[in-house]
Amino acid sequence: MITMRQLYDRGRPGQSIVDYLVDSVADGPGAQPAAAYGSSRYYTDGGTPPGRWVGTGIAGLGDDPTENNPMPAKLKPGDIVSAEQLRALVEKGRDPLTEKPLGRAFPKHLTAQERADILRRELPKNLTEQEREARERQIDRSTSKAAAARAVHAFDHTFAPPKSVSVLWALGDQGIREQVEAAHHEAIAKTVQVMEADTIRTRIGAGGVSQELTIGMVAAAFDHWDSRAGDPHLHTHLVIANRVQAAEDGKWRTLDSNGALFPSIVALSEAYDNYLMDSLSARLGVSFSARTLSRTGRTQYQIDGISNELIEEFSQRHAAIDAAREQEDGDASGHWDADRKAWADTRMAKEHRPLSQLTEDWRRRAVEVAGPDPLRGVVGRPRQVPGTPAGWPGMLPPAARSGDVTDQRIEEMADHVVNVLQGSRPSWSDWNIRAEAERTLRFIRCATPADRDALRARLCEAATAKCVRIDRVDRAHTPARWRRPDGTSRFEREHSALWVTQDLLDAEDYLLRASQAAGAPAIPGARAAVAAWRSQDGKQLLPDQAAAVAKVLSSTHPVDVLIGPAGSGKTTAMAALADTWQAHYGQVVGLATSAAAADVLGQSLGIETANTAQWLVAQQHGAAPLRAGQLVIVDEASMAATLPLAEIVSRASSAGARVLLVGDPDQLGAVQAGGAFGMITRHHDNPATLTAVHRFADAWQAQASLLLRAGDASVLRAYDEHGCVTSGEREEVIEGVYRAWRDDVDAGIDSIMIAADNNTVSELNERARADLKAAGKVGGREVVLHDKTHGSAGDRIVTRRNAHHLGVGNHRVHNGAAWDVVAARTDGSLLVTPAGDPSAQAISLPAAYVAADVELGYATTVHRSQGRTVDRAHAIVDSTLTRQGLYVAMTRARGANLAHVVVDDPQPDTADIHDVGSSTPTDALAVMAEILRRDGADRTARESAAEANERANTVRQLANEYDTITSGDGGHVRDDKRWDQRLPRVIPQAQHEQLRKDPHYEALLELMQARDGGQFDLGDLVPALLAEAPLDPDRPVQDLADRIIANTPMSEETGGGTYIAGLIQPGWARTPDAQRALNERADRINARAAHVLATALRERQPWTRALGVPPNDPRRRAAWLQAATAVAAYRDLYGITDGTLDDSPHMDPLGVRPISGEQETKFQANRRQIATWRLAEARRIADEATRPDTDPAPTPDQRPEM
């Protein structure tokens, strides 16, 4: 597999990006790249081999040949990487041979507090108190969002074979080790080749709008062979520099990570595994098959003959914890501290032991587990010769050529690929198809990498032919200069097509039509019926609940929705709804996506319930058919997949029944292809919604949770101020969460630990059990659970598979149910009672079920926590969460919801790079703000298509394309007027060099280009401004730009001609082809800006109040619209959403001013000034219209346009 993480320089001595990789390298004359460990010094001496240069892009490093230096120093693939070279490249962005800059220097980013302080100082002094508060909230929100920005220096791709391969390498002799290493390196080399062909791209033009080919990657590969715990873990760190040379112009730029690198990583990982298995099979005669490792629960391909027990022996940190704990039991400080110390002791610093010592230790451990010959029968199996009869048992089938697989078999596998994709996501990309194709082909061993590539291509083509492309964008004409050889536009990402099946499209369309249709049964007089309802304890509904329930009951939509944020009382509302419906029409059926949720729903509402899959199977077999007038309630509907939901609605509609979808579109979505619930709510003109939050003991949390749900980062300060946020590195955070949970348990508080991934959940569960065992709260006979942990009396466990034949009364065994262990029996079975209900009748879980489907239940994942309510919740918050996941994790408790935030996070799969930075910010609130920006809500296929078309036609996209085409085909001005040529001639060389090194130099040139001419001659003004005072050394471009703006105020006379949408300076092209492209984009920009303004006025978005009331007089209104359109265009150009949902009319409609280092700002300084002037102009026109003694403003054709 391949895991990837972004790297940045932490700026701490000894903890740089490079330190970990080079510190373990064995220096000296014997140092050489890992080619044959057995014959090198690494077998007997400590340390790892030095890194080696990788990638065709290294050809661009070093000086070019000259007459005086015809053979300059150059690098070639395989050359040794020195620490100094790697530091120059990765930490400084410089040529490792010449130290010359490779493109722009890495930008310096201000902290959130530094940005906020600057912006607060700039606020006008004459603001009212309300205006100042609104602007400061706007600043807090903006700076929180920008706080996560870090300069990415490199990308670490860690290539790690399946664990069984590492075991084979560790236990084999020198010849086996060499062959495993060679196969591993061959697979990496092939994957690098694929990456350079398909994913190593850069972006050029305004906003990086055009994706470009490159010369290739510049990377360094470092081989390591053990984990921090000392287990065999052969792996290679491929550190790819975030510098790449564009193929067209040879300039050094950054990688297109978002558009090319990130989307491809899963497919590349699957390809590496297949290349590796093919090579190992050919070299060593090994075979692979799929199996499930009990510890991880994941199905993986492993080498046949290497047992799960042997694999798990070399995944031993959990065993080390138990051993360390036993040594600490006698510690007088108490069992809690002893457990903490044991846990910390197992997180040892990585020791660089000689390979000979490691292999000796590994063989000793293997013999204890698997006997004297642990590799017996694993290697050396002969392969059948193609075209000959099948050989004896155990002989490997012949390696396949691409043509050996029939078209019929390809079609069958293509059906499988599409079915998997359709069942797992609402739409999929080319890379998703490619990844699934690689997984589908894993059982086939190919003769060569070329055969595998050809076979994968055939399968991808067949699978794609069964799909429907949904992102056919209505795009403006792209001139030939900006097209790829295949005719596609370089303004579109390669491999970015979105696909679905017709079945999925039909299901979405059906659900949407059903939600907008009429004629389903309703309850007359619903308001009175709801007002008369009382719960079992005599309580009536609160006003928002009563209104929402009445709206649902009186609706005639065959499918309707009830929306309720976390803690808003959905269960109470559903109880009233179910009781009222049953009084009029009879039975109500409850459904949920999990059996656990269905059981809770049934107990809460007193109705018959089932999980959706179980219910559909029963319906297909004719059991319990629906009848007219029935109501089907689907709870947690955001987690319901689209295709099953469509079948539920179809069956209900056919029977004359209604379906009510209950949930929150801003909580976690379906594991399968989902998004239907969110789609229905977004298309509903007035959905029934619960608006008040009742769960929390503290009033502030109710409002804060709603802001968190909306993704408003400003609310994070409230959580921080109330002591709900702590932070640290991953190990510190896990420790803190555990200790806090332990304190809760000691105090008798119902508490839960929540993590984003199963590995962390398992880690917390194991530690909790060890602690409780030491305290005497858990003990007695033990049985082995499915993940090789143990359970005994006193443990809290969770069942992971539905087994409805097990149980008593309403307490049935299902996936996700929590239980308390009463006793562990000698046969491996468990006697349990429902969690928290010791008086309930005990249920026996058979030994086979326990061994396969039972886990410890002290911690849970975010997904499994949805729907639970406790007294106190401790969430491990890391960069893998989405906004929806953070919202769920922070709303589980009635009391404190605590975020324990991971900063500087070494990911589990690359955790041997300890204390090396990643892209994760070091500030807890910045991490959380970045999470809030990451919308994880499912979008249906139709919505994804609409969003793709929307993105292609925003002012931002169109303007960036316009500026890029203009600059590439002639520019705004004649060559003798271009400031990139004039500036070096009018200012001293030292000042020009200072400005040119600033990453925002191009923005300065564009500003000068726009402000020059008319009454301002920058040729005289700029030298005078520079003579006033030295430039700010940290932000020279912004300093000079501020001076130019202050001395060249905008007015009608200095507008520079007719601007597109009143904002964007028009350009010209040298060719009719390019001019057509510009004209079409100008028309679309004008239309888009007008649409944005019209939408904002129709929805009465608060920011429009700053424009004043649109005049009624036609001439004044035309002038006002012209000015207001420029403001709308500016907002769309820079993605400003402030004032769209916020109810404050005092926010700046133009958003927060960008600060140097915050973002690339090509054109923005000038355009903000124009938009500011236009905003004032709109307000002036509106104000004049309210004074009857003023003449109407001139029409647009009577005055200069901006």
* Order of the strands making up the biggest sheet: 17-16-18-19-15-20
Fraction in beta strands: 5-15%
Number of strands: 34
Tally of separate helices: 40
Mean pLDDT: 84
Rg is 33 Å
Helix content: 40-55%
Let me know the largest β-sheet.
6 strands, parallel
C-alpha termini separation: 55 Å
Tertiary shape: globular
Organism: Actinomyces succiniciruminis
Protein name: Conjugal transfer protein TraA
Pfam families: AAA_30, TrwC
Structure keywords:
globular, disordered C terminus, Conjugal transfer protein TraA, single chain, 1202 residues, alpha/beta, Coronavir_polyprotein_1ab, 5-stranded antiparallel β-sheet, 6-stranded parallel β-sheet, P-loop_NTPase, TrwC
Explain how this protein is built:
Residues 1191-1202 have a biased composition (Pro residues). Residues 19-368 form the TrwC relaxase domain. This is Conjugal transfer protein TraA. The radius of gyration is 33 Å and the shape is globular. Helix content is 43%, strand content 13%. Among the domains are: 2-101 and 152-311; 112-146; 402-500, no CATH class; 503-687, Rossmann fold, CATH 3.40.50; 700-928, no CATH class. It is α/β, with parallel strands linked by helices and 1202 residues long. The protein has 40 helices and 34 strands. A 6-stranded parallel beta sheet has the order 17-16-18-19-15-20, with helices on both faces.
